[in-house]
Amino acid sequence: MRTGQQYKESLADGRLTYFEGKQVDDLETHPILGQTVDATAAGYDRFYDPAPDATSPLMTVPRSADDLREMIPMLHSAGMMAHVTYTSIQTLKTAAGRMVDTKPDYIERMDAFIGEAQRDDVRITQCITDAKGDRSRPPARQDDLDSYVRVVDRQRDGVVIRGAKLHITGASFGHELLTIPTKAMKPGEEDWSIGCSVPVSAPGVKIINTTYAPRHEDPRAFPVSGEHHYPEGFVIFDDVFVPHERVFLDGETHYAAVFAHALGLWERLGGLSAFVEEADQLVGLAQLVAEANGTAGIGHVKEKISELIIHATLIRAALEAAIAHCSIGPEGAAFPNELYTNAGKFQAAANYSAMVRHLHDIAGGAVLTSPVPADFENPDVGALARKYMSTRHDVDGEYRARLMHTIRDLTADSYGGWKFVTNLQAGGGLYAQRIVTRKHYDLDAAKQKALAVAGLADAEH
After folding, report:
1. pTM
2. Is the dihedral of CA 213, 214, 219, 220 positive or negative?
């Protein structure tokens, strides 16, 4: 296993990564991106085991509902790079389970890659969303055929790929890029049916980073995003060679959707588990700020907090149902229940904005206008800021301001805007969850129940 310091040293591998128009030669010392390096290194150290044969528990394939249940809090504590690595490994295991007895060579390659990743304690980022070009056209009819990542050359010992994958969280901070089709492919789209793993440092890989990280000298007014932020990568494959042993799909169009659906399942489980944690945070912030404002006993405030509590409880129930009703694949790996995972993720994402609206309504305009911590330290105005941010003798003005800053950072600033979009789009938009939920819901059983209650169970229809 790697220590955090060994992780930092592993990033000096010649990778080409860019931020705000400039190439970044040293991620660790960069004033903004370096914070992500530190957070990822801390995740390594938190779970480090010096035993010679130890492997990271963050990369373990779950074998039961209990394994799934125990893994979720570990991933939250280890950070985003551990999460995307776990999701990548489970995506490959899920895809392998759905290709068993049909593509043994690909399954052997996937298993070998997973074993290598576990032994070397690497971080893997999944790359799925293509540039897509004109969304009304399939890959082969685009003006630019590189709008979807494709094979441009097949050689004796591998393939050459070209294209770009967008919205890739933490792309510059891992070691491998798991690159898979973004959707189902049809006959004639063989070149775009490519699944493989590419080292971040491979020749031809270039990554452009964007981030919601605050650009302020004093990060105390950003208690969440000032501590942990994970840039998004615009990953470009500029004629990148991939050896055969790292190719998991090449031209078999009927298997392209297997990878996309497998990743969607694990991304949505991760998204649902994050929603559950955040929903409890929103409840806690709403109650605390209502108490600080002196409005906790007002009827409409209590009703809004009750709605927040119900929302948090129901999505937690969906997460527990997804885990408790998991299935075991042909290789013994456990997979969350598709129905409960997708329905829960949909419910959480579709109602997130309403829950945030309740929180803003309870908190008030001070979410945007509270003095920052440095103002309270100013000898001229600090005492006055504390005086007028206070609501009564037992509510310190700076304490109330810190609650407001947390609400703003989580829901109403750069990070909050990122979350609004990400909550809808991560793991596919709401429509994707509708499709999968409908696919796995027992509609025939529901129809029979309806016919029975209507007295038509035996009727011709």
Report:
1. 0.91
2. negative
